[in-house]
Amino acid sequence: MKKMLILIFLPMLLLLGTVQGQEAGILKKNILNILEGKKAKVGVSIADQTGKNIITIHGKDRFPLQSVFKFHVAAYILSKVDQQELSLEQKIQITSTDLLPNIYSPIKEKFPKGTVMSLKEILEYVVSKSDNIGCDVLLRLIGGPQAVESFFLKHKFSGISIKINEERQQASWDAQFMNWSYPVSATEVMSAFYLNGNQLLSEHSHSLLWQMMTDTETGPARIKGQLPKGTIVRHKTGTSGTNSVGITSAVNDVGLVVVTDRKFFFISIFVSDSKENMDTNEKIIADIAKVAWEFFEVHDTVQK
């Protein structure tokens, strides 16, 4: 009887997988249509709510992270909080010498002579407001960028390089390429830390991290740009400058998009080597996120 049931249901399961594969193929075609004619290299990785990657474009090519790496920094710091090596309430002094010129920092704008803040407060500035000076203050606290990279390598994540802080990253055009990720790796990290299957963070740290991601203020025209009003997006952006010949190396957005109470997906989009203007670069991300949202609104990719 058991063998008979297997023989009956196996073709159905195979057909389901084929149908889902065809549907994902249509989604990929729609994304490629968005990219047609664009003077940019775009990396895309989209995974369903189980973390299974269903769409990849340039998925294992290196793309500069820019401020996306602040997610990695925050995740590592919260793991140290869980181990009681750091405390969210500990006070950290930010001096006037920390407030470097020509580096984006809402902390610097609010406290031009320096201030004392809790670790939690700085984390919120770093993740939700993408504060560069706050990021570097935290990196000094934990032993530098390579301590973050080592943490991810220890947990068997690959396709990630975190070598320098924001000060160095902003100092020269070439330096930014030292911090990079594969799009598939960005999605893998996001999904692992959200699903928490490996118990990477405590419940409290997990909740705090993803609330900060939900509160992200940067990049409203990117993943969120064309989604229905009120859509919950938990994400982290990254942005480079444009060089003297009009090339922008990084307009990024990675995160999680909630479709319904029971359905969400992970998405990583990296726009690089672009000769387009900022509005076009951001619209590329918004257009991709929109067709992905429409796909998941209709289809349930999780086999039950």
UniProtKB/TrEMBL annotation:
The cross-references to InterPro entries, in alphabetical order and at most eight, read: Beta-lactam/transpept-like (IPR012338), Beta-lactam_cat (IPR045155), Beta-lactam_class-A (IPR000871), Beta-lactam_class-A_AS (IPR023650)
Signal peptide (UniProt feature, chain positions): none
Which catalytic reaction applies to this protein? a beta-lactam + H2O = a substituted beta-amino acid
Query: Which residue numbers delimit the Beta-lactamase class A catalytic domain?
Result: 43-271
- EC numbers, comma separated: 3.5.2.6
Under PROSITE patterns, the record lists: BETA_LACTAMASE_A
- Matching Pfam families: Beta-lactamase2
The UniProt keywords, alphabetically, are: Antibiotic resistance, Hydrolase
Q: Look up the domain of life of the source.
A: Bacteria
Q: Which family does it belong to?
A: Belongs to the class-A beta-lactamase family.
Record-given protein name: Beta-lactamase
What is the protein's species of origin?
Answer: Pedobacter lithocola
